[in-house]
């Protein structure tokens, strides 16, 4: 969840850029176990932590999740953990979606992003392009359905797609993906913050501005520089994902996806150290959630752990048969 500043600064920003907003409105067109009820799948529910997990049918990975409102009175985090068979291939799809301005945007992305992706014709032939196009398409669908009551709703998306021996991570916003490779913690996504030099330049080039209002914010309003939704700020707050691909081999131990409710109080290295000795992915996700809560995280907390099982050693691609 990202605090929106809704006081006088927003009114000033809105009045200055109303023509821009108006024009942008015209352009917007496997096996599983769970301790949450089916109706709450992907949403922890207010006051009730959820956890669960499972294994892929091909036995190559296990996964687990844990999600809680934490100290918040409302819950805007959603998550997705699914293993699908697509054209005879096993595809793992994992995501954390942290909403702001209400839960609608995060819920929409959770419900539609992966369904849109597995129907993309280039899912296998050009996975990165398929992901980028699916992010953009899903954002457009969300914006078309926005009304005057929820046009300031938005969501991050930190996702991981497992296709064969490839792990493809895509990120929008400040949820984060971290892997453990060879015992080392490696961030495979970048938090999108308005004060980053390239993000600030992109926003200013589009006619927006970044200013300090408790933290650096787009137009003095939003503390992330990329997100789904955010119709009023769409000209500046884009849903273009940064995508990174990792090879799944014997050095890749596990992946952590989590909302900033974890990363606000736990470093990448600390998270990897906590997960490393815990073989059960659900228990590992629960450990991260519990630790974040004990450290005083003030936000919703959602963690997904994917552990890679018995991967063959990396092969020399030029070796003769």
TrEMBL record:
Magnesium in keyword set: yes
Domain of life: Eukaryota
Domain PPM-type phosphatase: residue ranges: 62-308
Keyword Membrane included in the entry's annotation: no
Entry keywords, A to Z: Hydrolase, Magnesium, Manganese, Metal-binding, Protein phosphatase, Signal
GO molecular function, one term: metal ion binding
InterPro entries, per database record: PP2C (IPR015655), PP2C_BS (IPR000222), PPM-type-like_dom_sf (IPR036457), PPM-type_phosphatase-like_dom (IPR001932)
Assigned EC number: 3.1.3.16
Catalytic activity of the protein: O-phospho-L-threonyl-[protein] + H2O = L-threonyl-[protein] + phosphate; O-phospho-L-seryl-[protein] + H2O = L-seryl-[protein] + phosphate
Signal peptide region: 1-26
EC primary class: hydrolase
Gene3D superfamilies referenced in this protein's UniProt entry, alphabetically: PPM-type phosphatase domain
SMART domains named among the record's database cross-references: PP2C_SIG, PP2Cc
Essential cofactor(s): Mg(2+); Mn(2+)
Entry's family note: Belongs to the PP2C family.
Protein name: protein-serine/threonine phosphatase
UniProt source species: Eragrostis curvula (weeping love grass)
